[in-house]
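Structural prep section.
Before we set up the soaks we want a predicted structure of the protein with zinc ion in place, mainly to decide which crystallisation condition to try first. Input record follows.
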Amino acid sequence: MRYILFATTLTLFTIAAVSALFSPLPSVASGAEIGAGRPVPTPAKKSVKTIRELTFTDGEFDGNAITKTDDEWKKVLTATEFYILRQEGTEKPYSGSLLKNKKKGSYYCSACGLAVFKSDAKYESDTGWPSFFKPIYKKNVTEKVDKNLSEERTEVECARCGGHLGHVFDDGPQPTGLRYCMNSAALKFKSGR
Ligand SMILES: [Zn+2]
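Run finished without errors. Recording the tokens verbatim:
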């Protein structure tokens, strides 16, 4: 009887010791402790997509063009940006991220960062693409007749890097009567005056 009692006690002790060894450690810092001044741990870097640095250039185009090969552009542009900016693609209507953007600020070429439009010339054209009635400076965009389709259209490019931004039509509002119909993916917006 005594032996059985001893054996049972030993078994229970062993189970307790083993489970203590294998039980998960208490968490090092609870959410409340992190909020109380401890640095928030940085997430694992390998799952974070690298965001390309783009330097924004305000003001009128100074005439210094940027030229890159397709391979060089592919390294810095996303597949969608490359398709639109370098292959004259057009994003689907109502799909662009800047269509409904009503914030005050400037729109830059998403390939080279040159300022091309301002929020004060943006308007709702009901076409499904961000629309402006004038560029920020006439010098900052290049307009070219595009004969890719049977219908002749005027293509709008960034004057500095030649990136395709969209097209311009003559059915816009006053004071210009023009509609610069742009692709969101060809533009980067920055808030400001
Ligand atoms: Zn550009």
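Observations: Helices lie at 2-22, 31-35, 70-76, 79-87.
Flagged for discussion at group meeting.
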